[in-house]
Amino acid sequence: MGTDTNRLDDRLERILFDQATIRSCIAEMGAKITADYAGGDLTIVAVLQGGVLFLADLSREIRLPLRMDSISVASYHGGTSSSGTVTFHQNHLPDVEGRDVIVLDDILDSGRTLAAIMERIEAECRPRSLRSAVLLSKQVERAIPIEADYRGFDIGDEFVVGYGLDYQGEYRNLPMIGVLKREWIGGGE
Fold first, then answer.
1. Do 110 and 143 meet the contact criterion of CB atoms below 8 Å apart?
2. For position 55, what pLDDT does the model report?
3. 109 included as an active-site residue
């Protein structure tokens, strides 16, 4: 029998991180955030849509009262690399004045998206403190020099999908993170 191309995981060249490895990493990050923010007024602001699964799992590992909010932006616009333009899809920003804030995103690549969000929240929302957390940090030269305060895994310059990361809106639901086969980029079939 041939490969069933309807199975999303068969479209991966290789798996970088399986579900158990991701959960273990997130548990460690949650413990660190719990220790760092004990006694604080924490709000996590997730970047939609990629950060949703990460937010759900990480928030269960943080053993503190916290608020959750989200922000919707885009920088990939359907391709496999950042377009260089960060588009905010909402006018309203989270109400985080005077609170400790962690901006949470699925991946740090060019740095443009995270930097734009951090700058806007800092300038317009007046948080008490502002930090960032990413599940993946690509080890590439960034267009904007920024690093996340909390990061799960370092990866090479590969196009990855799964666990919230997508290609043209698909593959977010994979429970693992893997490298998408080239034949599935740009149309597949």
1. yes
2. 96
3. yes
Q: How far apart are CA 152 and CA 24, in angstroms?
A: 10
Q: Which pair of tokens denotes residue 161? A: 């999908």
**Residue 15 carries which side chain, given as an amino acid letter?**
I
pLDDT at 89: 61
Domain ranges of the chain: 25-155
Neighbour-count burial of 77, counting CB atoms closer than 10 A to its CB (0-12 exposed, 13-18 middle, 19+ buried)? exposed
Assign domain 25-155 one CATH number from 3.40.30.10, 1.20.272.10, 3.40.190.170, 3.40.50.2020. Answer: 3.40.50.2020
B/e letters for 176-185, b = 16+ CB within 10 Å, e = fewer, are: bbbbbeeebe
pLDDT for 76 equals 55
Catalytic member of 100, 105, 106, 109:
109
Residue with tokens 């760092």: 36
- pLDDT tens digits for range 24-73: 999 999 999 999 999 889 999 999 888 899 999 999 999 999 999 999 88
The reported pTM is 0.86
Q: Distance (Å, rounded) from C-alpha 29 to C-alpha 93?
A: 25
